[in-house]
């Protein structure tokens, strides 16, 4: 479990510390406040040695592979690590993660560095504790051949897309190893989407309903997104209590609001089983479902982190309760709508 | 001019006149309504050039009882709350017309003490049932309702600083 993410002079961040809870963490904030960057930085730094493709734990190898990892995750201009150093900063960039078991990892570099320095092991040697990153777009519609193309050509997809395609294409774990609640979640997803996605390997995916088999492309995008979560549970890429943190960037995109309730129910249940989840979202409906479905008696814990700009710096406000966040871009939008209607229909009345 | 609906006190500081519209008890009062069969809004406020009808619902009252809350959210959920709020406006409008007190444009403002994010949906539910049902009507010379909108305490105070509301 990640306890703390600390970013210094990294991309747009001056100095940011985020304390995570072991269950559900929800990052909100306007566009341009670095939600995705925060998620990717934590994802990258919590990678296992297998995920960064480092065959040995030799310091030079780890440094080179971790550097490559960050370049592929962030796609900086000209593939230069130094471009991830905050513009104008004098001190080093640092990405630091602290874990609840006392482990930590710190990556550091400057604007002319060729590679990152690495202090601490973090999760590097914890092969089973690999984190998972769900990007904004679903991938089932284009994963056939994607991994091969990604390796051969310079595609403008960051590495989270390759990672997820590889995880989706893994074989299913043995039925007796599938956790009861994971099976429950898979069944629930299949029930709602009215069928099951079938993975043939090599990225070939179809959708099977009771009587027919279709191309995954004809299925609604929101269903494909839910199908990804189901598959990651089937392959054991997500195993509550065993696998690492699940990062999910805008789970709500392309999702029919009605699917959100199911998704939130599933995420809460997975967090109860020991999965740490970090989400970035813009969507009020999604947040409200967490508010309504989280149950103290079941030990649910939902922590909100609102990123905002103050005096040119990105800051974070932490709250256990959505309503108590003062820097709340989502809520401000509703307030702006209210004001705009009053102004249009009533002008200055009452002012 | 201060008006109270249970725990919520409004001060319409720049009103020409402001009355509790649903006065049903005191038969000697000027504002005695007297037609129990008609739905009625809580207040009618007359400004220099406008009239506002105000309806108050207080599910956010810390003293609210469970049965009351269940009823409120049930009605919010099945759309009957929006229907009732429309009827209140309609029948208050007719009543004021019969009193010959409807020469100015009328706005319908409701104060419902719940999350601001849920208010827009209720506003849409009410507006959708109000004539002319979101359609342009070329023959109409007047608007039946001008601004029709739902607020909570915070958004009310933010938008109408001259008519502050507070819990007393």
Largest interface between protein chains, with number of residues from each side? A-B, 17 and 21 residues
Tell me the span between the first and last alpha carbons of chain A. Answer: 51 Å
Got a strand count of chain A?
A: 14
Span between N and C termini of chain B? 16 Å
Strand portion of chain B: 15-25%
Strand order of the largest sheet of chain A: 7-11-12-3-13-14
Helical run tally of chain A: 9
Estimated helix fraction of chain B: 25-40%
Principal-axis shape of chain A equals globular
SSE order of chain B in H/E notation?
Answer: EEEEEHHEHEHE
Helix content of chain A: 25-40%
* H/E topology pattern of chain A: EEEHHEEEEHHHEEEHEHEHEEH
| Weakly predicted, low-confidence segments of chain A | none
Radius of gyration of chain B: 16 Å
| Number of beta-strand segments of chain B | 8
Average predicted local confidence, pLDDT of chain B: 94
- State the helix count of chain B: 4
Determine the structural class of chain B based on helices, strands and strand pairing: alpha/beta
**General shape of chain B:** globular
Q: Main β-sheet of chain B, in a few words?
A: 5 strands, mixed
Helix and strand layout, with pairings?
The complex is a heterodimer of chains A (351) and B (168).
Chain A: E1 2-10, E2 13-19, E3 24-29, H1 35-45, H2 59-74, E4 93-99, E5 104-109, E6 117-119, E7 132-134, H3 146-152, H4 159-168, H5 180-193, E8 196-201, E9 204-208, E10 213-215, H6 221-234, E11 246-249, H7 257-272, E12 277-280, H8 284-293, E13 302-310, E14 313-319, H9 329-346
Parallel strand pairs in A: 3-12, 3-13, 7-11, 11-12
Antiparallel strand pairs in A: 1-2, 1-4, 4-5, 5-6, 8-9, 9-10, 13-14
Helix pairs in contact in A: 1-2, 5-6, 5-7, 7-8
Chain B: E1 2-5, E2 8-11, E3 17-20, E4 43-46, E5 51-57, H1 66-78, H2 80-98, E6 106-112, H3 116-129, E7 148-151, H4 153-159, E8 165-167
Helix pairs in contact in B: 2-3
């Amino acid at each position: 479990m990640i306890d703390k993410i600390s970013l210094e002079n990294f991309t747009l961040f001056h100095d940011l510390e985020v304390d995570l809870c072991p269950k559900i963490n929800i990052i909100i904030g306007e566009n341009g406040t670095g939600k995705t960057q925060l998620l990717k930085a934590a994802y990258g730094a919590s990678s296992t040695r297998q995920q960064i493709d480092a065959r040995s734990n030799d310091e030079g190898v780890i440094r080179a592979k971790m550097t490559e990892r960050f370049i592929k995750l962030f796609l900086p201009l000209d593939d230069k690590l130094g471009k991830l150093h905050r513009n104008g900063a004098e001190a080093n960039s640092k990405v630091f993660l602290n874990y609840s078991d006392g482990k930590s990892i710190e990556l550091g570099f400057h604007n002319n560095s060729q590679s990152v320095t690495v202090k601490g092991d973090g999760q590097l040697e914890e092969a089973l504790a690999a984190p998972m990153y769900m990007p904004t777009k679903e991938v089932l519609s284009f994963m056939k051949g994607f991994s091969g193309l990604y390796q051969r050509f310079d595609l403008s997809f960051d590495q989270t897309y390759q990672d997820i395609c590889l995880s989706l294409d893994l074989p299913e774990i043995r039925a007796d190893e599938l956790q009861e609640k994971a099976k429950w979640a898979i069944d629930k997803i299949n029930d709602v989407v009215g069928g099951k996605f079938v993975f043939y390997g090599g990225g070939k995916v179809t959708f099977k309903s009771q009587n027919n088999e279709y191309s995954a492309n004809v299925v609604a995008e929101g269903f494909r997104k839910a199908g990804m979560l189901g598959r990651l549970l089937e392959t054991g890429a997500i195993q509550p209590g065993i696998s690492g943190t699940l990062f999910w960037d805008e789970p709500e995109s392309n999702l029919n609001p009605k699917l959100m309730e199911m998704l939130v129910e599933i995420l809460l249940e997975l967090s109860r089983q020991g999965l740490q989840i970090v989400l970035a979202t813009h969507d009020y409906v999604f947040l409200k479902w967490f508010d309504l479905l989280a149950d103290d008696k079941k030990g649910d814990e939902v922590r909100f982190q609102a990123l905002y700009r103050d005096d040119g710096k990105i800051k974070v406000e932490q709250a256990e309760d959505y309503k108590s966040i003062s820097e709340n871009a989502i809520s401000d939008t509703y307030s702006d709508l209210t004001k705009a209607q009053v102004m249009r229909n009533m002008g200055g009345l009452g002012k | 001019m201060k008006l109270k609906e249970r725990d919520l006190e409004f001060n319409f500081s720049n009103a020409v006149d402001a009355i509790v519209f649903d006065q049903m008890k005191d038969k000697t009062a000027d504002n005695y309504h007297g037609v129990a069969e008609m739905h009625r809004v809580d207040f009618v406020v007359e400004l220099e050039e406008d009239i506002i009808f105000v309806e108050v619902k207080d599910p956010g009252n810390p003293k609210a009882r469970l049965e009351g809350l269940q009823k409120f959210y049930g009605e919010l959920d099945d759309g009957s709350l929006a229907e009732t709020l429309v009827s209140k406006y309609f029948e208050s409008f007719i009543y004021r017309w019969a009193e010959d007190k409807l020469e100015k444009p009328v706005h319908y403002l409701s104060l419902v003490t719940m999350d601001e994010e849920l208010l827009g949906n209720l506003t849409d539910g009410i507006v959708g049932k109000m004539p002319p049902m979101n359609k342009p009507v070329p023959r109409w010379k007047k608007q039946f309702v001008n601004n029709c909108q739902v607020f909570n305490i915070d958004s009310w105070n933010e938008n109408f600083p001259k008519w502050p509301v507070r819990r007393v």
